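fyi for ur records
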Amino acid sequence: MSKGVIGRLHSYETLGALDGPGVRFVAFLQGCNLRCLYCHNPDTWQMDIGNIISSDKLVEIILTYKNFIRDGGVTLSGGEPLLQPEFCAAVIELCKQNGLHTAIDTNGTVPLQLSKKAIDLADLIMLDIKDIDNEDAKILTGEGNENVIATLNYCEGIGKEVWIRHVLVPEYTIFPDKLERLAQFLTQYSCISRIELLPYHKMGDYKWDELGIENKLKSVKEPDNEEIAAAKEIFANNGLPVR
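which gave:
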């Protein structure tokens, strides 16, 4: 594989502690195919902007932090990183050659014929399931969950470790019956080692204002501690490794 695959990078975080196991270098790739109502990075949506960088140059930057991330690793996030599958694959391959754990934080909607090469190479897939109900997923993100489920099924088939991420959004996803159905659905997968229930937050609201994008969740409140605890209890009661 050529080491010089060109990609578009939005930004990076050098000592991330929330995007995979351990302390990690997190590369946020430019471009996203979804329009999640709760997105805190709408500035990553456009595909044709961002910093143009080669895979070998990005890994060169990553390796300057190797001593800090050697017990953690590298996470490719976004936007949606798998919209740049060849770039992801090239970066992951170089990172693995240098002994670094690799993860992809993905919404899972990129078709497998494009994404599987990078998925095969990565050590961990952090998969966002936006909504268990297909039509509600379309309302929340602009796209259904068929490819997401196909991605999860593929990971199960090849024994790829998966962390599930699900955002708790009042008025949209925090309903006991919906959470129960999601939890029951996930019990069939042995590849899932962790489930992260992420409370909706409003820290990215200012970006929507700056970009002039209508924020349909402007009046939606962040979930309180009781709502979060009740949601986690549903998953725990189904024997799932919830955080």
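The beta strands are 6-16, 24-29, 51-54, 73-77, 102-106, 124-128, 161-168, 192-199. thats all i got for now
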